[in-house]
Write a structure and sequence with these properties.
Layout (H helix, E strand, L loop, with lengths): L1 H26 L1 E6 L4 E6 L4 E6 L9 H31 L13
Antiparallel strand pairs: 1-2, 2-3
Helix pairs in contact: 1-2
């Protein structure tokens, strides 16, 4: 039963750290860019878009498709950074805790 008590204590610690991580993710802002920085998207660690910045030189009515592609690329870049940040924060919390195969955090 000693191991069970230790497991429960460790699970509670992980739960507390996960809550703290969720708070950090909500506060964190990560920026993705495309077109050499001509389009930037700033997102929270939760994936909420906070800011879109577009270089004024890109706003040409006849080149709408180029701008759309650059916005999509910047969103994808920001999302990849959010995913990497989330994974990094999760690794910090999990340390050496082994999860069953196929289980990924955060849930």
């Amino acid at each position: 039963m000693k191991n069970l008590g230790q497991m429960m204590k460790q699970a509670q610690e992980v739960q507390t750290k996960m809550q703290e991580m969720q708070e950090r993710l909500a506060e964190a802002e990560l920026t993705g860019a495309s077109g050499g920085g001509m389009v930037t998207i700033t997102m929270t660690g939760k994936g909420e878009v906070r800011r879109v910045q577009i270089d004024p030189g890109l706003i040409v009515p006849d080149d709408r498709e180029v701008l759309e592609d650059l916005i999509a690329a910047a969103v994808n870049d920001a999302r990849q950074k959010v995913d990497a940040f989330t994974q990094e924060e999760t690794q910090k919390i999990m340390g050496g805790l082994q999860l069953p195969p196929g289980v990924k955090l955060p849930f």
